[in-house]
Automatic annotation (TrEMBL):
Residues 237-349 form the Acyl-CoA dehydrogenase/oxidase C-terminal domain. Keywords: FAD, Flavoprotein, Oxidoreductase. This is Acyl-CoA dehydrogenase/oxidase C-terminal domain-containing protein. It holds the Pfam family Acyl-CoA_dh_1. InterPro entries: Acyl-CoA_Oxase/DH_mid-dom_sf, AcylCo_DH-like_C, AcylCo_DH/oxidase_C, AcylCoA_DH/oxidase_NM_dom_sf. One of its GO terms (molecular function) is acyl-CoA dehydrogenase activity. Residues 373-393 are annotated as: Disordered. The keyword Translocase does not apply. Gene3D superfamilies: Butyryl-CoA Dehydrogenase, subunit A, domain 2, Butyryl-CoA Dehydrogenase, subunit A, domain 3. Belongs to the acyl-CoA dehydrogenase family.
Amino acid sequence: MDYRIDDEAAALRAALLEFLRERMPDPGTEPGDAARRGAWRELVGSEWLEHFASGTEDGADPAARVAALHVAEAFGAAPVTGPVDTVAGYLLPLALATGWTAGLARLRDGSLVTTLVPGIDAPGPDAVPRRRARRLAAVRGGDGVRVSGVLSQVPCAAGADALIVAVQCDGRPAVALVELDRAGVSVGEPSGVDLRRPVADVTLDAVAVDVASVHAPSDLLGHEDACAAGHSLFLDAEAVGGSTEVIARTVAYCTDRVQFGRPIGSFQAVRHRLADVTAKVEGARSLAYRVAWDLATAAPGAPADVVASRLWCSGAYLAAGEAAVQCHGGAGFTWEQGVHLFYRAALSGRGGADLAAARVALAAHLGALTDPAPAAPDAERATEPVAAMGGAR
């Protein structure tokens, strides 16, 4: 790996940060629906979401893939409401990779579109971690397709215009663009600790979908797996950006806050705590960059490294959030300081079904490395649509 953060990458990140801080509403102010929708349309129109997708295209230079993480870091440092990670990190790359023109058009017209990103599947005999979507049933009828099923904890589903659903149609895996104002759609109450992306359950009861809204390329499963891995890296970079921001805010607070005639940052217990979490975050940053490079070069073990990066980066973000709350003292819990916004984001990215699945996948990978007998590739599993675990939220 030979990568340096050049002036162009630094300028790109600075420009995005300036845009987000000046134009996007603070999630901590809990903006209303009209403000969120207006901000989302402006964000989509600015084309910032497509910067990450362009760096993850097939054949992209490894340095471009690493540079794309700077965009995600900026979204971590300046959080905004809406399914940023879902659209920039998964849906746009998937639509570009599979040539889904209708899906791209909908993602680019300012509509609020979301989905449930495939989670980690149980590792097969080859011990390679893969991500598989839980597919709903889709049945042809009349002039279109009828989709039925329940999806749990879909990010930003409440108030969304459309949902992209992984379906099984005519015996083949496909994705379908489901309008959420159709008859048969039921969206539950939003919940979750993350103010940026509240989750909600979505129930589809024989919802009519136009045939033109169903996309079934032959290599869909492979692209879903690759794009879900890219989405995992987007979350990693967001965590690194959020951690860096919350540490910077805490250092500034501890420099200004004076107790016993000294800034509290001069006390060993405080400065060592911040130094420790800074070291964790910088390690997470290095790992995420390395994994992005290895994915672009198809290095052996890269899929397992993606899983390891998710564990390290999410753990470092949570440690940074906890340290920030503690070092702010009583003020860390106040709405005005805004530390809670980052701590909530860190909590939402750590835990849930994918945490256990990630540990199982890494254990299988490490076991395969120490086993002298190579396992045969699980070809059947690689092509078979699998009911998988939902993403952690």
